[in-house]
Amino acid sequence: MPASSGRKYPVISRLIERVKRLADRSDELPEFRRMDDLQVGQIAHEFGLSRAELYTLCASRASDGLLKQRLAEFGLTEELLAKMHPEVLQDLQRVCGTCTTTARCADDFARHRDSGRDEYCPNICTLYALKQEGVGQKERKNDSCCCGSCGS
User: Fold this and answer.
1) pLDDT, tens digit, for every residue of 42-54?
2) If we measure between CA atoms, which residue out of 43, 38, 67 comes closest to residue 55?
3) Would you say the pTM of this structure is higher than 0.85?
4) Which of 5, 52, 56, 79 is most buried as measured by Cβ atoms within 10 A of its Cβ?
5) Is 20 buried (19+), middle (13-18) or exposed (0-12) by CB count in 10 A?
């Protein structure tokens, strides 16, 4: 993959964050919703989403933190994936941002449960594939903490 395509994914991640912040501000959400269909369609197309998925992603407030926690369970970080597999990170963010089980996921994290996640997490197969590939293992060996994600 050329270096330039690795650089464009952080831009997309920042754009997603800006759109989410816009959606979080209740006084500006109507402005976002007033964008014409062509503009919304172009933005959605650039992310590989439908218009409905784009709105869902923008309205999803909990998914970013949940994804970080789910990645940490597998010894991964967004920064690591952005370097090694930016397209996979983008897909994980999209899937998590449009997930319908965020309440269950948040509850499981609040109760420190990981049993059952394989039943409902739509990203779980990708995370197991990354684990099987060994992504994050070398990085964890270099860290002094036990989980490889806190940097202690």
Assistant:
1) 888 887 778 787 7
2) 43
3) no
4) 56
5) middle
